[in-house]
Amino acid sequence: MKPIPAEVLLVDDNPGDLELTSEFLSRNHYPHRIHTAGDADEAIAFIRGTGKYARVDRPDLIVLDLNLPRKPGHTVLSAVKQDANLQGVPVVIFSTSQAPADISRSYQLGANSYVCKPGNLADFAMAVITMGNFWLCCASLDGSSKAKRHEDVPVIPYKENA
Question: In this structure, are residues 3 and 31 in contact, taking their beta carbons and an 8 Å threshold?
Answer without folding.
Answer: yes
